[in-house]
Amino acid sequence: MELSEAILKRRSIRSFKSDSVSDHQLLRLLEAARWAPSGGNRQLWKFITVRNAKMIRAIKMFAEGLYGWPPLIIVACSKKGESIATLDIGMATENILLTATDLGLGGCPVASFSEEPIKTLLGVPEEYRIVLLVSIGRMD
Predict the structure, then answer these.
(1) How far is the C-alpha of 134 from the C-alpha of 111, rounded, in Å?
(2) What is the pTM of this model?
(3) Which residues are 37's β-sheet partners?
(4) I want to staple 32 with a disulfide (CB 3.0 to 4.6 A). Which of 16, 93, 99, 105 is the partner?
């Protein structure tokens, strides 16, 4: 798929088929995030992947903006106190979403969630904050 086609086809998808996201697809998504620009190339991010249905169910209890039942959630975190890191996460997320489109997947960035309970569930280190949850899956 041409980049311009992926840009035009990308939509925020909130309803997913139960099909899992393959390891190969997951690696492609994370590789796309890794190649996003970051201030000073410092890459002050951490991406946590969640594919366990029980953990996704638990996260949904604290994420009012997370609709549907995605088979994958990518939790995008940045180092606390680094304001440029939020912009970096935005660019990495766009790379993830465009790559998802190219792979025939859909996704949606979610910013409405309660951070502390999700940090506890996932064991996110104290020096990081959760910026976005990115739901990913095959479109319903």
Answers:
(1) 9
(2) 0.94
(3) none
(4) 99
- The first and second tokens of residue 116, run together, are 């502390």
Q: CA–CA distance from 2 to each of 6, 60, 79, 96, 98 (Å)?
A: 6, 34, 33, 15, 11
Measured CA to CA in angstroms, residue 68 lies from 11, 86, 93 at distances of 15, 26, 19
Q: Please, are residues 44 and 88 in contact by the beta-carbon 8 Å criterion?
A: yes
* Residue showing tokens 């890794």: 34
In total, the chain counts a number of residues equal to: 140
In the structure encoding, which two tokens stand for residue 132, read together? 């976005």
